[in-house]
Amino acid sequence: AGSQLREIFDKINNLLSGKPVQTGGRTVSVTQHPQGLDFVYYKLAEKFVNQGEEEVTSHRDAAFTIAVVASGIWEMHPRVGDLFLAHLHKKCPYAVPFYPALKKGTSMEEYQRMLGYQVIDSKVEEQDRFLKRMSGLIRLYAALIQVRWPYGNKQGAPHPHGLRYGWRWLAQMLNMEPLADVTATVLYDFLEVCGNALMKQYQEQFWKMMVLIREQYMPRMEEITSSDQMGSFMRLKQFVEACIQVKNMPLPKGALQSSFWRS
């Protein structure tokens, strides 16, 4: 509910503002240690990213509720935003977007980690689990760039990391050679969550981009996609074609309506 989200936001904001906060039966304050605030900035940004990886992966609609709190905290405490991006890019280079290349002297295990795979005891996680985590992280990012905390004290100020970053992400993505499986997955998640907001903001330019995806980018993706990876490609293809046909991007599931804040 909106009221619960406000309580969570206020508690985090109070902690970062140096006020004492009750947690786990005791009172804590960032002023209790010289590096207290830096530590909390770092851990909080990490927690937001972890929620993309854990919560959004299993409950896709949760992206917006987590994102709106993160966006509001970012607005009030810009350092959290810088650290959020750092944690996000380390876990999910596709949020940059960036495809790390295998360099001479880099071990395969280290390279898998750079690509975002979890490697535990030299065992690389399964592709399906990896793609689900990347989906969760991209969905959180796609939600964050379009939402504002409605009770911020900086009304009228630009979003600290708004839709223009989403437009830039999409343009950069389409300038890169696609990767099998990964590109289709993250592009679909990004468009499903952020397409409606980008359509409203960029209008005709957005539809030119969508046609470019269908006419030029999809054939390049299809070329590198093997038969057992066709699922994510077909899902993206059908979504893009359906949206172009009706010239509309659906409102994403979980998007916060004004009525939410009255709950």
TrEMBL record:
Just give the chief location class.
Answer: cytoplasm
Q: Which UniProt keywords apply?
A: Coiled coil, Cytoplasm, mRNA transport, Nuclear pore complex, Nucleus, Protein transport, Translocation, Transport
Instruction: Name where it's found.
Output: Cytoplasm; Nucleus, Nuclear pore complex
Per the record, its GO cellular-component terms are: cytoplasm; nuclear pore cytoplasmic filaments
> Could you tell me which Pfam families the record lists for this protein?
GLE1
InterPro entries noted in UniProt:
GLE1, GLE1-like_sf
Q: Name one GO molecular function term.
A: translation initiation factor binding
Q: Which GO terms describe its biological process?
A: poly(A)+ mRNA export from nucleus; protein transport
* UniProt keyword Magnesium present: no
Q: Which family does it belong to?
A: Belongs to the GLE1 family.
Q: What does this protein do?
A: Required for the export of mRNAs containing poly(A) tails from the nucleus into the cytoplasm. May be involved in the terminal step of the mRNA transport through the nuclear pore complex (NPC).
Question: What is the protein name stated in its UniProt record?
Answer: mRNA export factor GLE1
